[in-house]
Amino acid sequence: MTDIDHAAPRRRLPVFTGILVLIALAILISLGTWQVERLHWKEGLIADIAARQAASPVPLADIEAMAAAGGDIEYRKVTATGRYINNKERHFFATWRGQTGYYIYTPLELADGRILFVNRGFVPYDNKEPEMRMQGQLTDQQTVTGLAREKLPGKPSWVVPDNDVAKNIFYWKDLDVMAESVGLEKASVIPFFVDADSTPNPAGLPIGGVTQVDLPNDHLQYAFTWYGLAAVLVVVVAISWFRKGAKTPQQ
């Protein structure tokens, strides 16, 4: 075997390594750039939601028209008038400010006979049953202002427990089952919810204004991580090549 045969593998190895380094560098930079794009998208979304919450409420009909046209109704401020059907309220298991209890979803019967499910707010665990908060069971005509919330297409995750309809305990907001479980026809139910605002209720219960907008925005941190790894890769490769070059004359 000649010296040329020995040298050939040594020449090919740096080229192969360089290709791998370039591929890894491209992937890391792409991931960092993708996170920057996600950051801009998330900041825009947060600003949009804040603007919707700060806007003046619009009639329910406007939100219905938007929903029917496929528009995004989430967190848009709306107002509706009707009478609560208190004996058909549904209970959604929830935690509010560190306290365990339920959100009370009560059907609001509109003037045309249709039904809008309203999340009237939070009650502590011991106040689940209406008998424990009778002063809050409003019977005359009410005008509610709150935020429109879209109907969930299905169970959010396999880790979420199944709804216990028999005990009137819901772990995810299944509008169709909520309506069906109290004998309401699906056709008569408006296909979204409304979260009532923080207007005080008699005797303090339910506590309104419980809508939680939790949109984690860690994309800048992730972008720095990916770009940082790319920079580290470049430094490590540069040091490796420098050391290899320094040793070459002694060989």
TrEMBL record:
Record membrane topology: Multi-pass membrane protein
Any one GO CC term of the record: plasma membrane
Protein source organism: Rhizobium sophorae
Transmembrane segments: 12-34, 224-242
InterPro entries linked to this entry: Surf1/Shy1 (IPR002994), Surf1/Surf4 (IPR045214)
Signal sequence range: none
Localization per Swiss-Prot or TrEMBL: Cell membrane; Membrane
Protein name: SURF1-like protein
UniProt keyword list: Cell membrane, Membrane, Transmembrane, Transmembrane helix
Family according to the record: Belongs to the SURF1 family.
